[in-house]
């Protein structure tokens, strides 16, 4: 097949086009083909096309292609292969809810549970992206026990003891006391800068009012203070969200690397 030859020389983009052409050509012969044969051939072509799209890091395209699988497959091994590919494409394209739903369906529809070895890793990673850390932790414990891994799960998930920052609380604290919201969000230097700017703006206004430059003092000084005051509160909210994103990414990376190391050890 032309597409397979193109894959062999690394022409994944063009190979993807030829796999789609092969799918179209096959669809024109559907009336003359056995339904089971057509299903198997179409699924295999789609599977190969998805591999090309993943090589090219076109994960959203891979996700859309995976939706075209015919999942009415009686063979457990092939059925698992297809559903795992759908779930993986969903994870890579950041459709985490759909990916987890596919994982649950895989566990439900596939009778041979011995095929699930790779599914645990994907589900742990997907649960992490959904912020379902407690479920992820429990599944990781089962994964470690099943594979006889010497991993301290409590240590790995110790971050669960630290509550995420509340954006609403950060904003409220900034309204009550300028700069405190930023400090709470984990940015003490920006908190001090915010206090300084608002103090300067307020001082500028008071100074000019004291010297009877009322228009400058009120419109310029008060205007700057208002901008810094409300802008600082909004900034504190965004900083709390940023802190949570960074913590999540750091925790995810730590668990991801632990899983990769574990899988590599299993493969040796």
UniProtKB/TrEMBL annotation:
Domain of life: Bacteria
UniProt keyword terms in alphabetical order: Membrane, Transmembrane, Transmembrane helix
Bilayer-crossing regions: 213-231
InterPro entries documented for this protein: TPR-like_helical_dom_sf
Name recorded for this polypeptide: Tetratricopeptide repeat protein
Organism: Runella rosea
């Amino acid at each position: 097949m032309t597409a397979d030859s193109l894959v062999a020389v690394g022409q994944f983009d063009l190979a993807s086009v030829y796999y789609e052409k092969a799918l179209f050509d096959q669809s024109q012969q559907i009336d003359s083909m056995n339904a089971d044969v057509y299903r198997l051939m179409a699924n295999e072509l789609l599977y190969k096309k998805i591999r090309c799209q993943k090589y090219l890091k076109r994960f959203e395209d891979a996700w859309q292609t995976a939706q075209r699988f015919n999942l009415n497959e009686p063979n457990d091994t092939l059925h698992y292969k297809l559903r795992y590919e759908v779930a993986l494409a969903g994870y890579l394209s950041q459709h985490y809810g759909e990916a987890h739903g596919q994982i649950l369906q895989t566990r439900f529809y596939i009778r041979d549970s011995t095929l699930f070895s790779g599914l645990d890793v994907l589900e742990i990673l997907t649960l992490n992206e959904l912020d379902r850390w407690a479920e992820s932790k429990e599944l990781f414990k089962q994964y470690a026990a099943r594979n006889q891994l010497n991993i301290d799960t409590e240590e790995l998930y110790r971050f669960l003891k630290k509550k995420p920052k509340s954006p609403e609380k950060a904003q409220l604290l900034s309204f009550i006391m300028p700069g405190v919201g930023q400090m709470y969000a984990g940015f003490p230097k920006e908190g001090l800068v915010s206090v300084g700017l608002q103090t300067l703006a307020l001082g500028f206004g008071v100074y000019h009012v004291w010297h009877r430059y009322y228009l400058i003092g009120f419109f310029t000084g008060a205007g700057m203070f208002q901008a810094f005051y409300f802008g600082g509160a909004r900034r504190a909210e965004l900083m709390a969200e940023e802190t949570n994103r960074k913590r999540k990414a750091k925790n995810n990376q730590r668990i991801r690397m632990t899983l990769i190391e574990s899988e590599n050890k299993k493969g040796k």
